[in-house]
C-alpha cells in the first residue's frame, strides 16, 4: 500500500484535536458522570454531523461518491457505535481510578495490539513497522511513566479499552471503503450516545448545575473531538495501513502534553521531551520508503 499523504494529514489533525481534548475531558467529568458525559458529547457530535450531512462538508471529505447499500451503512453504524460505546466508557471509567500518565501509556498499547491482531489474521507486517512500534513504545514510556508501574483496577479497564479501540479501528478500516464515511461517523456517535444515555439514566444522577459546569468541555469534545476529529480519522483510514494509522493517532498523547503546557501551564521534564522526540521519530519512520509491506 502506497503512502497517501492526504490521509496522513487527516489522521494527524485528528490526533491534535484529541490531544487537546484530554484537558476538556478531565475538566468535564468533574461535573457530571462518565456515561452522561459520553451520551451528551455523542448526541452533540453525531447530531451535528447528520445535520450537516447534506452540506458541502460531505463532498469536501468524500468527493461526493454515492453509496447505495443502505443495509451495509446501517450495519456499519451499529457495529462501530457499539464498539465506540464500550471503548470510550471503559477508558473514562479507568481514568477515574488510575493516574493520567499510566492511562496514556496503556491506551497507546493499541499500536501493538493492532499489528498483533493483523498478524494472527495472516497479514504481513514489515520489519520497519515492527521497529517503529517498538520505538514508539519506548518513547511513550519516557513520556508517560514517571514512577513505578503497578496495575490497578483502573489500569485493567484502560487496557480493555485499548483492546476495544484496536478492534474499532480495524472495523472502521473494513467498513469505510464500503459506506459513506461522514454518515458512518454520525451514526456511530448516535448509537454510542443512545447506549450511554440508557446506562446513565439507571446509574448516574442528573444535575443541571453540573451540566452547566461541563458545557464548555462538552462543546469541545462534541464538536471538535467527536464530529470533526473522528470524521477525519474515518476518511483518513480508508487509504492508510491500519497499523500506521494507529501510530499516527497515538500522537494524541504528545499533543495532550502540549495542551497541558499551554492551557494548564504544566512544564515538560527533560524525560518527557525525550519521549516526545522518540515518538515523533517513530512516526516519521513509518512514512519513509513509500510502502508498508516488506
TrEMBL record:
It is a multi-pass membrane protein. It comes from the Bacteria. It is found in: Cell membrane. Keywords: Cell membrane, Membrane, Transmembrane, Transmembrane helix. InterPro entries: Diverse_Substrate_Transporter, EamA_dom, EmrE-like. Residues 7-143, 153-286 form the EamA domain. The chain crosses the membrane at residues 7-26, 32-55, 76-95, 101-120, 129-150, 156-177, 189-206, 218-237, 244-264, 270-290. Its main location: membrane. Belongs to the EamA transporter family. This is DMT family transporter. It comes from Peptoniphilus equinus.
